[in-house]
């Protein structure tokens, strides 16, 4: 007999957006069921093993209060549990990995521990039920209303039917959109549709950003070389037309200029972590791939605690461009994900055996896969890094012209009356399955309009991540960790607000008075909805 569960709000997907949605709803007094298909909650921060991509002002403003609590919690976890040096322990903006991509590069398990701690009181109090590992397989829909979602256990096949007045799609690929019949877009929209300068002449729905299977490595004495991967010869010869050389190499297009540049790779450079200035506005930080996304800098810790730095590999050469995993058969999806993993193993083997060294030699046989760091026996990340999802067709669609500095100059982007959050990142599109090179456009600090969280037709389904109402282009700056968190937190708070006041999300967005009441609630909860206007008074 199929088990049935009911709560005020059902959240499908336990990534950053899903966790933030749960916290937003729970703080507002509502009961929540949250499901997650992988063994870890946290999505791109944990199971996908991607250090947070954040804007330059993240230590001061520009993210929600609860996201700052997550960041502070990660730093405090290190202070409480790790053998930091006195200097690193005293470092206010502690960056455990001293990576250049972010001011907070940390091991995935630490992010997981802090997220679990943030949810723990609600689970203990019976307000939150977490179902793992479950994925959605069916939906019961009545007209414009989603009644329930059927979840299936990843391993046993056992099914649970979960119902709730509000359903939040926090899956990585927007999986509830086709299941519920919610209208959505995918891939490139046509320029005739969006008016975006960077869009193509014709829509390309199957042309999506590459997925990547990340992995962690360190470098120790001895020969750690793995067996030659099954498809290594294929990937060793693989060369996209625009790449400037084989994919397995240190030459690649520069994302911003598209000029062919050559990066370096120097394991354990023994640099001073306190001198790393992780500000992508001043330095992209990817010159030395070892330090780019380093998640443990051994000099942050007491001597002997770490044999080596730990480096997170999320580099251009692991971007898998051979096919989309959206709206294909399960067999096709599995084929592409396996091939993406094969590419990552091949990159690692190439690093061990053929990568050019500064001393003129080849290969770094002392490199080790650190699957213990990413929580797997196979050595790679637990989940693929998903950059692009299905996207709702929204009340308000965010287009390139709204955020591009070509349009706005060095100022804020379009201001929305219904702003429910803020963010900042360049429009950063990786090579795609249609054979396109990087698309990288300067963007201005932007707002998140509530209308981008509302499907045009469906009344009680809300997005909580990369499935909000962006385009292929603007997804490039709305897809990062703090924005996903903001979107999820607002979705959870909105669902709870509507239940608490007998409203619908569309009524809140359309009516100035109701909107202002909700925005005031966001403000009290620490959700910034406007960028600071800093001046004397």
From TrEMBL:
A GO BP annotation: NAD+ biosynthetic process
Pfam families xref list: FAD_oxidored
Coiled-coil parts of chain: none
Molecular-function GO term, any one: L-aspartate oxidase activity
Gene3D superfamilies (UniProt xref): FAD/NAD(P)-binding domain (3.50.50.60)
InterPro entries reported in the protein's UniProt record: FAD/NAD-bd_sf, NadB
PANTHER family xrefs: L-ASPARTATE OXIDASE, SLL0471 PROTEIN
Protein name: FAD-dependent oxidoreductase
Record organism: Devosia soli
């Amino acid at each position: 007999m199929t088990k049935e569960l009911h709560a005020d709000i059902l959240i499908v997907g336990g990534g950053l957006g899903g966790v933030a949605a749960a916290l937003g709803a729970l703080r507002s007094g509502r009961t929540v069921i949250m499901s997650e298909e992988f063994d870890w909650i946290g999505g791109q921060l944990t199971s996908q093993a991607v250090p947070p991509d954040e804007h330059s002002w993240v230590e001061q403003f520009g993210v929600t209060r609860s996201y700052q609590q997550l960041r502070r919690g990660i730093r405090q976890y290190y202070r409480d549990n790790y053998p930091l040096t006195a200097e690193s322990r005293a470092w206010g903006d502690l960056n455990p990995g001293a990576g250049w991509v972010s001011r907070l590069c940390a091991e995935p398990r630490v992010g997981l521990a802090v997220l679990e701690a943030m949810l723990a009181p609600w689970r203990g109090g019976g307000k939150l039920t977490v179902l793992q590992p479950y994925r959605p397989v069916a939906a019961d829909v009545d007209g414009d209303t989603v009644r329930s979602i059927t979840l299936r256990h990843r391993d046993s096949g056992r099914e649970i039917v979960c119902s709730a007045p509000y359903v939040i799609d926090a899956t990585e690929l927007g999986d509830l959109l086709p299941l519920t019949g919610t209208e959505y877009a995918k891939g490139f929209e046509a320029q005739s549709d969006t008016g975006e300068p960077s869009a193509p002449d014709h829509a390309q729905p199957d042309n999506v950003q590459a997925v990547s299977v990340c992995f962690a490595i360190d470098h120790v004495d001895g020969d750690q070389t793995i067996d030659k991967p099954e498809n290594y010869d294929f990937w060793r010869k693989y060369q996209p037309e625009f790449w400037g050389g084989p994919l397995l190499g240190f030459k690649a297009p520069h994302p911003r200029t598209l000029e062919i540049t050559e990066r370096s790779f120097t394991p354990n450079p023994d640099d001073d972590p306190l001198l790393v200035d992780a500000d992508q506005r001043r330095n992209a930080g990817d010159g030395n791939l070892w330090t780019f996304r380093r998640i443990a800098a051994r000099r942050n810790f007491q001597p002997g605690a770490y044999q080596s730095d730990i480096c997170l590999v999320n580099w251009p050469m692991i971007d898998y461009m051979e096919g989309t995993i959206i709206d294909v058969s399960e067999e096709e999806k599995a084929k592409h994900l396996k091939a993406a993993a094969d590419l990552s193993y091949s990159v690692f083997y190439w690093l061990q055996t053929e990568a050019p060294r500064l001393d003129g030699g080849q290969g770094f046989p002392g490199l080790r896969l650190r699957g213990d760091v990413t929580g797997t026996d196979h050595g790679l990340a637990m989940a693929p890094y998903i950059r692009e999802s299905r996207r709702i067709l929204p009340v308000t669609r965010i287009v390139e012209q709204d955020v591009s500095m070509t349009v706005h100059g060095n100022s804020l982007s379009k201001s929305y009356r219904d702003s429910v959050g803020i963010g900042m990142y360049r429009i950063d599109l990786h090579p795609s399955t249609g054979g396109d090179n990087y698309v990288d456009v300067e963007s201005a600090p932007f707002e998140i309009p509530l209308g981008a969280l509302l499907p045009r037709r469906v009344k009680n389904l809300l997005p909580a991540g990369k499935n909000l109402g962006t385009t292929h282009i603007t997804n490039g700056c709305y897809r990062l960790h703090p924005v996903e968190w903001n979107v999820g937190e607002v979705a959870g708070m909105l669902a709870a607000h509507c239940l608490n006041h007998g409203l619908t999300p569309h009524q809140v967005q359309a009516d100035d008075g109701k909107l202002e009441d909700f925005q005031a609630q966001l403000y009290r909860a620490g959700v910034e909805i406007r960028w600071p206007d800093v001046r004397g008074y």
